[in-house]
């Protein structure tokens, strides 16, 4: 893979910092952080006629970064007002020095936002990775200060992370600064790109402070971005190809009243390039054709077990929890040697029947689980809040407990694998929060498996592409309000072809003949 961007926990960042300061000529990281933030403020948020800056400095080293930022901006001629919420005597050595430097240049300190002032930009240096808002909640004064900043509707640069947000898990239990840009130091933190972090971080700019973090701490988690994903694409198709080369996906689900879920998964698989797609439907007397997508081959579920050329199975869309669904899933888990994508009620059944979970753990072929937070909570025997407050851990636990590849869906979906590696998805938007988009994802994953991608790569590509397809729809305002699962499918097909062929798929296969 092509240098994916690593993610570091708070503990990792502290370890890297310790290694850096233990060097013979230790770098002044606070100075570098403040300088980087001042440059970003000047270059991206200020202009000649916008020169008034409000800097918020908190009680710890994040506040120290803020004093350094304030000092540089003032040196460069900007008008800087600084609020300090801490106590000078409790500051670390570096932060004390930064405060002293600010005061020495004539900088003033306020305890509250002056009511008479007006500003063009705000720098948020209240809290960084030292705040764990779940364990140590922000008091009312801080909450009011943060709300006041958010209500000013000004561009905000957050130092390291938006204050109030947990850097490890992206939760903001009370409130957090809504940043326009987050200048994050040393390494990217998972909390910026999952759960509530997606709401608060704004544009993220990584400032490495001249440290080569990867050489100091080997990462276990990475960001899924377009650069990484483009290394996973299927190869362009040979001109002399046939449908057998692109696999056959079997989709099992579609109990009475839920056939649409299986149809959506089927269309997702078909339009992401599977050679053939069969639907094994649990409904009594199921329809034999979908007039809107006649390419799909609809069968009663038992007939699917007789096919010997399937490449993979997607089990769950509209499966239901009836005994027939349970028996069907049991048979698949016990007898099938195909890669399996398990979604929706397949996951709920596994959560409720420990014998199904036991068989799943011992499968030799790859199994991919695609739970949302509620399904993940059932699988882990916990509640939704616990999953959401520890999304990385929940995804990792699922991968390890069930010996499966897992995507924990939601804002900033997390893909986790049994080897402990974890990937956080950067694509997607709330347009995806509508019925059927999960079914589409399971079908898309099946299509990529059928075309020969490894289970890890199929899951990563499907998850990123699914989100990117939704993002592309925003460009024509086909969302986020009212975006539909079917539209995701067409948008994903367009993007996948664009990524594999550029804009020139037609030329690759055009057969112009000339006679000279
Ligand atoms: N780790 C590093 O290598 C570097 C850290 N730097 C900065 O330092 C930050 C971490 O500094 P700290 O560890 O001092 O932590 P923070 O400055 O993020 O916050 C900790 C401070 O907040 C107080 N606090 C915690 N919870 C509180 C609550 N609920 N209500 C009120 N006060 C509360 C603590 O008593 C402490 O004073 C980073 O986010 C970054 O901005 C930078 O200077 C660059 C280098
Ligand atoms: N706010 C959001 N941001 C990004 N992705 C989202 C958001 N809301 C939902 N999604 C994505 O949409 C899909 C919803 O799946 P799921 O909840 O299983 O839907 P359904 O059961 O209706 O098919 C998942 O891929 C999830 O990651
Ligand atoms: K901050």
Structure explained in plain terms:
The protein is 41% helix and 14% strand. The protein is α/β, with parallel strands linked by helices and 516 residues long. It has two domains: 6-219, YjeF N-terminal domain (Rossmann fold, 3-Layer(aba) Sandwich), CATH 3.40.50; 243-469, Ribokinase (UDP-N-acetylmuramoyl-L-alanine:D-glutamate ligase, 3-Layer(aba) Sandwich). The chain has an eleven-stranded mixed sheet with strand order 1-8-17-16-15-14-13-12-9-10-11, sandwiched between helices. Strands 3-2-4-5-6-7 form a six-stranded parallel sheet, covered by helices on one side. The relative contact order is 0.10. Residues 344, 372, 409-411, 413, 428-430, 432-433, 435-439, 441, 466-467 line the site of adenosine-5'-diphosphate.
* Mean pLDDT over the residues: 95
CATH class of the largest domain: Alpha Beta
Structural class: alpha/beta
Computed CA radius of gyration, to the nearest angstrom: 26 Å
Q: How many DSSP H or I helices?
A: 20
Number of domains: 2
Report how far the terminal alpha carbons are from each other.
46 Å
Bound molecules: ligand NAX, adenosine-5'-diphosphate, potassium ion
CATH topology of the largest domain: UDP-N-acetylmuramoyl-L-alanine:D-glutamate ligase
Total strands: 17
Query: Looking at the structure, what is the overall shape?
Result: elongated
Q: CATH homologous superfamily name of the largest domain?
A: Ribokinase
Give the strand line-up of the largest sheet: 1-8-17-16-15-14-13-12-9-10-11
- Summarize the amount of helix as a percent range: 40-55%
Low-confidence stretches: none
CATH architecture of the largest domain: 3-Layer(aba) Sandwich
- Residue share in β-strands: 5-15%
Biggest beta sheet summary: 11 strands, mixed
Binding site for (6S)-NADPHX: 61-65, 142, 160, 261, 318, 372, 439
Binding site for AMP: 409-413, 438
GO molecular function: ADP-dependent NAD(P)H-hydrate dehydratase activity; ATP binding; kinase activity; metal ion binding; NAD(P)HX epimerase activity
Protein name: Bifunctional NAD(P)H-hydrate repair enzyme
């Amino acid at each position: 893979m092509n240098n994916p961007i690593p993610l570091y926990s708070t503990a990792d960042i502290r370890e890297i910092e310790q290694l850096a300061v233990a060097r013979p000529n230790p770098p002044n990281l606070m100075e570098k952080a403040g300088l980087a933030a001042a440059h970003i403020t000047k270059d991206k948020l200020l202009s000649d006629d916008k020169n008034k800056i409000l800097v918020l400095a908190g009680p710890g080293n994040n506040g120290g970064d803020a004093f350094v930022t304030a000092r540089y901006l003032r040196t460069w001629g900007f008008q800087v007002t600084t609020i300090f919420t801490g106590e000078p005597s409790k500051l670390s050595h570096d932060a004390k020095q930064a405060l002293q430097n600010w005061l020495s240049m004539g900088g003033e300190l306020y305890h509250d936002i002056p009511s008479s002032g007006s500003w063009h930009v705000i720098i948020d240096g209240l809290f960084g990775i030292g705040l764990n808002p779940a364990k140590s909640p922000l008091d009312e004064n801080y909450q009011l200060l943060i709300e006041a900043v958010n209500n000013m509707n000004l561009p905000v640069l957050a130092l390291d992370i938006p204050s109030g947000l947990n850097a490890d898990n992206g939760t903001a239990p009370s409130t957090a600064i809504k940043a326009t840009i987050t200048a994050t130091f040393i390494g990217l933190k998972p909390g910026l790109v999952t759960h509530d972090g997606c709401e608060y971080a704004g544009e993220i700019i990584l400032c490495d402070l001249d440290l080569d973090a990867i050489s100091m701490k080997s990462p276990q988690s990475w960001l899924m971005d377009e650069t990484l994903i483009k290394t996973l694409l299927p190869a362009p198709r040979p001109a002399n190809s046939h449908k057998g080369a692109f696999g056959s996906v079997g989709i099992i689900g579609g109990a009475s009243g839920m056939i649409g879920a299986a149809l959506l998964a089927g269309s997702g698989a078909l339009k992401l390039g599977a050679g053939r797609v069969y639907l094994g439907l649990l409904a009594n007397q199921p329809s034999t054709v979908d007039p809107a997508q006649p390419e799909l081959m609809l069968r009663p579920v038992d007939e699917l077990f007789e096919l010997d050329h399937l490449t993979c199975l997607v089990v769950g869309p509209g499966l239901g929890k009836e005994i027939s669904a349970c028996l069907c899933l049991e048979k698949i888990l016990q007898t099938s040697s195909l890669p399996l994508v398990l979604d929706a009620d397949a996951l709920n059944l596994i959560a409720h029947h420990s014998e199904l979970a036991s068989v799943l753990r011992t499968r030799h072929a790859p199994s991919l689980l695609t739970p949302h937070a509620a399904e993940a909570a059932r699988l882990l025997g916990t509640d939704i809040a616990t999953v959401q407050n520890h999304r990385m851990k929940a995804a990792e636990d699922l991968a390890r407990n069930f010996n499966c590849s897992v995507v924990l869906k939601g804002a900033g979906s997390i893909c986790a694998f049994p080897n402990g590696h974890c990937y956080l998805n950067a694509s997607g938007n709330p347009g995806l929060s509508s019925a059927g988009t999960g079914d589409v994802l399971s079908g898309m994953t099946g299509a990529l498996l059928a075309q020969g991608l490894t289970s890890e790569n199929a899951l990563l590509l499907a998850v990123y592409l699914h989100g990117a397809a939704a993002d592309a729809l925003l460009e024509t305002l086909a969302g986020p309000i009212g975006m539909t699962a079917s539209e995701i499918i067409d948008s994903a097909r367009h993007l996948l072809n664009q990524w594999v062929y550029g804009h020139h798929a037609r030329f690759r296969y055009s057969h112009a003949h000339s006679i000279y």
